[in-house]
Amino acid sequence: MNEMPHIDKAAEMTDSKISAKQVQVFYGDIHAIKDVDIEINPRSVTSFIGPSGCGKSTFLRCLNRMNDTIDVCRVEGTILIDSEDIYDPKVDPVQLRAKVGMVFQKPNPFPKSIYDNIAYGPRIHGLAANKTAMDEIVTSSLQRAGLWEEVKDRLSEPGTGLSGGQQQRLCIARAIAVNPEVILMDEPCSALDPIATAKVEELIDELRENFTIVIVTHSMQQAARVSQRTAFFHLGILVEEGPTQDIFTNPTDKRTQDYITGRFG
Amino acid sequence: MSDTTLPPVASSADTTPSEKRKTSLYRTDALTRKRNAAEARFKAYGITAIVIGLFFLVVLASSIILEGIPAFTRTIVQVEFTITEDQFEAAEQELFKTRAYEGFFIASLEEQLRQKGIDAPFDSDAIERLVGKTGGTIREFFRENQDLLGQPVAFELAASSRVDGYMNGRITRESIVDSRFLMKSDLYIVDALVEAGVIRNAFNWNFITGADSGVDNPGGAGIGASVVGSFFMMLVVLFLSLPIGVAASIYLEEFAPQNRITDLIEVNISNLAAVPSIVFGILGLAVFIQFMHLPQSAPLVGGLVLTLMTLPTIIISTRAALKAVPPSIRDAALGVGASKMQAVFHHVLPLAMPGILTGTIIGLAQALGETAPLLLIGMVGFVARGYPEGLIEGFTDPNSAMPAQIYTWAARADFAFYEKAWGGIIVLLVFLLAMNILAIVLRRRFERRW
Lengths: 265, 450
Description:
- Chain A is of the alpha/beta class.
- Chain A has one domain: P-loop containing nucleotide triphosphate hydrolases (Rossmann fold).
- Chain A is 37% helix and 24% strand.
- Chain A contains eleven helices and ten strands.
- In chain A, the strands form two sheets. Chain A has a six-stranded mixed beta sheet, with helices on both faces. Chain A has a four-stranded antiparallel beta sheet with strand order 2-1-4-5, covered by helices on one side.
- In chain A, α4 runs parallel beside α7.
- The radius of gyration of chain A is 19 Å and the shape is globular.
- Chain B has a three-stranded antiparallel beta sheet.
- By secondary structure, chain B is mainly α.
- The two termini of chain B are 42 Å apart.
- Chain B is 67% helix and 5% strand.
- Chains A and B meet through α3, β6, α4 and α7 of A and α14 and α15 of B.
């Protein structure tokens, strides 16, 4: 969408980083996501909550087209990131994923050294001109992920040898190493103990200054702790979306209230 | 394992009432006992199965070694003698030149025996039966090494396979029938030679390095040429089936859409793995030789046929190895913006490597031991009469392969070839063992990277 006049683009550059309109997702015949409209603010944390199977992870994976890897999955509607339709035929999903990074539920470091884990992304995108520049990227990524002090003496050891929480922070460091604008996190703390979770949450809060973060979580406390806005999904429908404060203290929808008070889910 | 099964009458009689009142952990109840007994029985079955398997393995290995070891030794008649330049000149003047040399040989053998005080009557025919036509060998030697004329030279001449058989007990004085190959009386000469210490056993290098011989010369037969044939065939198989197989599996596993066509391909690959090898042989005969006019009996054609046979094995094991790589690794790579191909080649393939290598080597080992398709394309043992002259000839000249050579020997009438067949099996097994060890070593090496 480079032909778009500059003024137009600027005019459309409203507050939102990501803007989804009438998004539908189908798995074969199953209509998994129905009519989702949402605006996601830049440099903030937005959390998706909802019971299992409500489609929050599916919707998250639409935002960097990870669903493309599933044959039967079909996405309709428009998702704009910086006013560009990411499902436009001209968009290469690989390029998109460099801009929209992802952290997964289970820590999944590559079975390589800690250094190579971080350096892989910058290397394939050609972000570092030489070894020194690469060292710089690795160091700063690990520092921003709060992992530097713990691993600086063993960068050549395998990333799989770290503890679960360290592995997850390594994955976050790996995601920010390619300098994305948006980071999607799919239940990043569900496999971690409370202390590791606290560290990751603290990290998310710090990353908010530079990145737009969307996080899917099962824990409502976590959503309340880390996010500025919260969206509640139920049965493939976006039931309610608003400032976290409002969602948790004064939900407008009955279903949201039931879920938050623990009546189902 | 009868110690764990308790008499059923006693158990049901006194546990049932007490169980109803209260259960104690000190007392195993009937159900637990039954389960334990079943478990013990199952263990016993397993141990029995393993013992039976080991027994057959031991029988197989020991019979192969016992029958095959004689093929690696041969009886040698060692005679030391000197030919002067005059004798050489004189012999070269004669009409039957080799006959003259044979005369020298017999004379010095007699001399050696006389020195040791042994008197055994023999004539040139008997010597010919025992060590073959010696004159030719001796003449050849002196014509090439004329500077050794006048000096004592120790000749080691291979005794005939009948003498071999007598020395290792395969032929006895009672079992022997007079023939043009061996007379009963010859055995007295052999005994005399043994007494004089001119006969001894030596390692049969010719068996390892030689080529196949005619049907009347079992002693000269060697497996070397067919080892070379097998080697060139394996080269063809490796360089065709590995890249084709791995590329096909990567495409099917990682890129191909799941639809009816890929399902059909998948089913057919599995079916191909079960097709009898002789079918591939007849296919090779029809397509490669009769249609494409590739040279008959050539390792190139053998390799092509075995490639077809090995491909399904490699594809199936490679796909299994790719499937075993956790999907989270693919997600991780795609998540940092790697393309599908980068994800596969940078992350998935290295992790699947040990499995791919193991599958490939198992496929190669299977191909190495395959006989039937080779017989159909003319790679039978008796074409392995010599070594190929060069690298290209190695692929295109008629040759045999180890299993086909073994089959040919086993089918020959002369009992001495039977021994060669067993010896050939030992050589084949050594190669297979080496390949399996290689597979294990490579596996270990690549797995350490995790």
